[in-house]
Give the backbone structure.
Amino acid sequence: MGMKTTLKELILRLHEIGCFQFGEFVLTSGQKSPYYIDLRKIVSYPAVFRSVIEQYMLGLKEVDDFDVVVGIETGSIPIAAAISYELRVPMIYVRKKKKEVGRGRLIEGDLVEGSKAVIIEDVVTTGGSIARAVEAVRDAGGKVEFALALVDRLQGGRERLRGIGVDLVAILNIVDVFEVLLEENRISPSTYKKVMDYVGGVVKL
């Protein structure tokens, strides 16, 4: 595959801590899936979290200049915070819905009008969460041209974002992930086939 060893090792570590789950799941998008990716676990494993952040930092090299990183409630907030800390770049985050008390904000943190923002996401399926964050940032006076995610499930997110003028940079896609898990005997050939059949039915390259 030509994949860097560090990425392969990261996939295996994510599997070891239970980030890849198999069964029948309903996704945020409403779609059913035979697998689920739970990256919220990584904050409990500092070494894995550190490796994830290192990959995001490499991914940001593919992003044009930016002034602020944007987390999305809740999964990518710790990731965006770590990136903000490492780069000394301001951070904001977008809520799922406006806060019902206080100032009723959708965006937390201070966004300087005209700032170039990069949206940070953990897993992309249809791109709906990112699209909503893009709209919120743009409505608040920010500019968004890029989003960065760890895993693209290849279910139309990239195309959806392209339609609103945002380029998705994904560190991994789901085919990369499951090829490594199969090669390293972390999943059975039957599980691999079931997932790939599903991916083949929904994939939009």
